Fold each of these.
Amino acid sequence: MATNETPIALTIAGADCSAGAGIQADLKTFLNHGIHGLSAISCVVAETPREVRQIEPTEISTLEAQLRILIEHYPICAVKTGLLPSVESVRTTAKILKEHQIPLVVDPVMIASTGSNLTDGETIHALTNDLLPVATLVTPNIPEAEALLDRTIQSEGELEAAARDIGQRYDISCLLKGGHLPGEGDRLDVLWHQDQACHFQHPFIPTPAGIHGTGCTLSAAITAGLAQGRDMREAVARAIDYLPQLIKSAHTWEHNNYRISCLGW
Ligand code: PXL
């Protein structure tokens, strides 16, 4: 059988049983981009977009076994991390990825769309100490950037300095997503990359109630672009352009007085 040229990307993240975020969002996004997606499951999350009920971390040896067998046997072009539920899961991931030179996108998942905390302070510390130095790009939203910098970000005017400070601190690129800032007008995301800021202004698109996974999907789309060999600015620009169509074609269900939506991959 001839080999084919389909690029491969790996996501290391939590499995979301409601299939709107985490591993499931990443694999659907990879598929949409013509990428073969691999997954290493860091935890199993019992949740909907409206409630995080339980997070069960994968045994560290099981996380390590998934990573080792995949890296051994597949020509992986790019990797992304999502929810890593413990210090040990962060350190194990960082240790293994450090042994290989594969572009790495870190989505520093800390808080679910429900507002539930998904990580604790020690895990965030491991993320900054161990994983960010191995990353190519980190993609915080405003609350995550505030946690990384230990300062507040209150206006669009502060986005560029914040993206630069995170990028320079870890010697990586940083895409700071401004969507959490108040207001109804355009939204600004700022990419700090190779000592330059690049501004991405786009219209605010309201999301339906009860949706999650937009952050996972954006970082997976960037990872797909890098796996296809695109440069960072182009991969980010295309990923930002990819999201509105998924929001506009979102699915919504009502069941037992519970309204729930999912991006329309
Ligand atoms: O949206 C952040 C996120 C990431 N990864 C997993 C999740 C969530 C949110 O709930 O469950 C697995």
Note: The chain has eight helices and eleven strands.
Amino acid sequence: MWVRAQPAFLLPFQVGFDYNGISMIPYLSNGFQPQRQEDKAMARIIVNTARSKGTINRNIYGHFAEHLGRCIYGGLYAGENSDIPNVNGMRADVVQALKNIAIPVLRWPGGCFADTYHWMDGIGPKQERKTIVNTHWGGVTEDNSFGTHEFMELCRQLGCDAYISGNVGSGTVQELSDWIEYCNMGGISPMSALRRKNGQDEPWNIPYWGLGNEAWGCGGNMRAQYYADECRKFATYMRSYAPGQKMVRIACGANTADYHWTKTVVENARDQIDAISLHYYTVPGTWEDKNAATEFTSGDYYQTLARTLFMDELIENHSRIIRQYARGKKIGLVVDEWGTWFKVEPGTNPGFLYQQNTMRDALVASLNLNIFNNHCDSVIMANIAQTVNVLQSMILTEGARMVLTPTYHVFEMYKGHQDAQQLECYAQTAMIGEGGESVPQLHASASRAADGSILVTIANTSLTDDCPIQCFIDVPQTAKATARVLCGDAHAHNTFDAPDTVAPAALEVLLENGELRAALPPCSVAAFTIR
Ligand code: AHR
């Protein structure tokens, strides 16, 4: 049964979040207030259309594809001579699916692979390309049939921007500088001549370039100060090749909460960089004994979500440090690896990091994307790891077959946030959990698109309880709302034989006098569009 909110409670939120003289604003971005006992039946979401942190950069919905397992080979790229339907070697089904979620940017070629990758091995006639060993990922042979030209063809088909992760760990300054010249030089030069010889006349104008990957680990095991000096040196030779050509130099950032790394790199290399990265994976259990993707307890589930929410604190803290040490220069935060990391599926190569994807992953995606939206004033890009067949994938493939994961559906439901104006959003909700892990039952973000429509995305994290909600939002009397929901048992997932077990469905919603009402099923992600 629907219960109307008392006007005394409603009013403060309609007049600028001033409740008995106490501003509610600090709670909007950072925290959740415990719910009063008598309010338990109905949770409240307040969307403050008068306050925004700015535009949600579409690149927050970015992806990452590494030469790892079956991400590139078999996942994105079938090869020109494959029986699998393809366009210039790219799988037609996978490309179409990724276009449907409006993939804005793709990071490549790694990951750890990036700091072993020598780009010249991957250009020129395929039969002459060098065969190498992928030392990080399964020790498999890499024939370099997918190189720079193929990557740019993939981005062309996807209609997305390219983000290339340069080799700082085992490459040279000259090599990275040449790669940029090869890709971005429009005039006459040794590298542009080589590109033309290989069939590409026009420069690609690639805007995003990474200065190594995980330099504190697989990218060279460097200490922060040493990396900062390397970063300065490499970045010096990363040039724009035309007036106004976009060149975003992204320094390798911290692992999780290594704040010393962020401070040292920004303090020492701020003049040479435009952004710095952050890697944080959701790993339930221990690193040695991770959860399986599809078999887990309810305690594991809540631990997974609680660990995901740590992303909020990480972004807060790293952003503050960046602001402090950038001394007025705008340096963006790029969360270029995030997602769940579980045990590999039984019987698969441990070096391939192939895992299934359930409603638990959908909740992880929802929480992270809400967090990124709500930090759109500092997060300029995020790249889920990884696009196909690796870790928290959008898509799984098996031969010619393809299946969309619950995570894919969350990205599809959230795509309206891309380039929209973030709106402050506050969930008054209970804290729930099990086994000492506690998470808010509701987690939300909201935005207004250029056409005026408002998208509110809300996760109900409870495994057992549905959640009737009232969402207060200042919209015209004539506004109409529609809603979709993704829900199911937390273990529910799609397989090649049952590809539609988890798929979005219509959700009943009422909108009256700026009050939107709906009931969110347990373990669900809902998207409300108001226009
Ligand atoms: O995404 C898998 C790996 O995780 C990446 O190669 C590396 O950067 C990180 O440790």
Note: The chain is about 25% helix and 25% strand.
